[in-house]
Structure to design on (76 residues):
């Protein structure tokens, strides 16, 4: 496994993202890019922002899959 991870440029201590495809069961491992936050922006703020965006995306996905939802009334 170590040799495979080195092929995508991973070193010990690197941060990765791991996703599992529900459709295929594939495990996807990607090297995360290190980002420096601007002065005055805390990691907690970025975590909260990320969680909020994920929740918003999930809500839009749920709305897209619902037949009828409160924001869309089909004409009769």
């Amino acid at each position: 496994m170590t040799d495979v991870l080195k092929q995508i440029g991973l070193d010990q201590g690197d941060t990765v993202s791991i996703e599992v495809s529900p459709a295929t069961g594939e495990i996807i491992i990607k090297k995360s890019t290190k980002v420096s936050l601007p002065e005055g922006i805390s990691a907690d703020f970025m975590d909260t922002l990320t969680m909020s965006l994920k929740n918003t995306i999930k809500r839009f996905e749920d709305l897209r899959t619902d037949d009828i939802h409160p924001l869309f009334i089909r004409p009769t």
In short: DSSP finds two helices and two strands in the chain. The helical segments are 2-7, 43-65. The mean pLDDT is 81. The longest strand covers residues 16-20.
